[in-house]
């Protein structure tokens, strides 16, 4: 069973390419700070020096080592992305599946709620909530982004489950006396697993981009380093107009590389599992 | 179920309108609750800070303090505060700014709104049109070189945040090559007027922020449309028409029209996100729009101004949503003729 899922994926060049880029960046975030153990927040020496042997990515206005900042920033941003995805996923799965299984008035209430959250612009709401929070840890940012981004997923899960529940094999399992839990794990979950995995990946992207956006407005994490915070300081110190390219280009490249590699992985998965999209 | 006495078109729009109105009320309620519910009550912190500053400039600070107390009504019970808040919001009174006291927040917001609309609407429409065409062509020539190049570049370029593309464009085209100005909505020091020279100056400053939104937004639409058209091409009516010998350009037109419908709804849903991105892009470009005002309000903790900007922005997004729903109802014959629930 697992072989039939994994084999076509490994053969897909896009999947392998995307996954490799993503894993390289994950490794940079996980092992990077250990291999390059400089304190990202301390004053390392010269101010605003371009990349050199001593500082491979140069330094910022406060003499901070930008490579150390980048590696630690990757770590924080990925952490925020994953946490956002977990939170959005749990809420979306719960609301979507309860809605599909219960039906009736529960379904109506949950779906109206979902539509309202979907219609309220989540980026604006995130900005507004963050404004009032004096201390914002990485976790607070992730919770904020996660709690605001689940609705489309809940709707999709509900639609998928509804189409599965009425299939014949589910009916047969019911006749065979399966419990609800057995039904959920053996008949329904496999049907939505790949879809959920793809949604999880998109939520990670949403978390990483959301953190960067909030940080640029000045509402990012209040301590530590993240990709968004590096960009924020680069903007505040006018690095773009003063030509300090080594400051604002690397964090942006990493953000684009992470999110597009993950997107390529999901498209490849979609091609493999969705027969309609297979190339003729 | 269908009420025969009512035009289905009107019924559809009426339902959409009521839903948006209801959602707007909820958004207003959130704006009301947030500062009061968050631990360490930011409002009382702000008032305390103001009264400390009172030592240096007692007269002015006392006036601000008094206005704030009145507008937030902190001494009153919450339900009176709430009724007061909604009532004033409906009358268009969004309170008094702290950082630009004694100006009303609405008077600060209204001049910047046109700049944001001027930046946002043409750029998201341009991106939507180019993206949809690109996606449809890619799907039509599925597997060809055009398709591969369009799809793969869309996947990557579509992930570039507007603001970072903006930074790259400023760095390359303004700082290095000195072709375009890298900041502002017009040359500093000039006085806005309707003269030809000023308009040219505005267009000149417009190009970079416009491009940074258009280029990064095209990819998402292209990928979406490509998928929709590919799905549509597999439907029965396409193979039926092919067997009948209908010209392929005619089939393409049918398929394109059918695939566009979900993308119109997508446009309505994307406005909020696009606005968020555009606000940050404005900050990068020092563009004199709402994003820039919001940034200033955030750095001075001007809560009434921040709240006011939100109330206005959410209302604008809902108006835009409703307009897109209206267009959707016109182009979708199922709604116009009252079949299906759209």
Write a short abstract of this structure.
By secondary structure, chain A is mainly alpha-helical. In chain A, 75% of the residues lie in helices and 0% in strands. Chain B starts with 7 loop residues before the first helix and ends in a 6-residue tail after the last helix.
Protein described:
The complex is a heterodimer of chains A (280) and B (342). By secondary structure, chain A is mostly helical. Chain A is built from eleven helices and no strands. The longest helix of chain A has 38 residues, at 180-217. Chain B is mainly α and 342 residues long. In chain B, 77% of the residues lie in helices and 0% in strands. In chain B, helix 2 (42-53) packs antiparallel against helix 3. The longest helix of chain B is centred in the middle third of the chain and has 38 residues, at 196-233. The model of chain B has no long low-confidence stretch (mean pLDDT 82). The interface between A and B is large, with 46 and 63 residues.
Question: Segments of chain B where pLDDT lies below 50 for 5+ residues?
Answer: none
Give the helix proportion of chain B (percent range).
over 70%
**How does the helix and strand content of chain B classify structurally?**
mainly alpha
Average predicted confidence as pLDDT of chain B:
82
Radius of gyration of chain B: 25 Å
Strand portion of chain B, in percent? Answer: under 5%
Q: What sort of overall outline of chain B do the alpha carbons produce when their principal axes are compared?
A: globular
Most strands sheet of chain B: none
The count of strands of chain B amounts to: 0
Instruction: Please give the share of residues in helix of chain A.
Output: over 70%
Terminal-residue CA separation of chain B: 15 Å
Counted by DSSP, the helix tally of chain A is 11
Tell me the strand percentage band of chain A. Answer: under 5%
The string of secondary-structure elements of chain B, in order, is HHHHHHHHHHHHH
Approximate shape of chain A? elongated
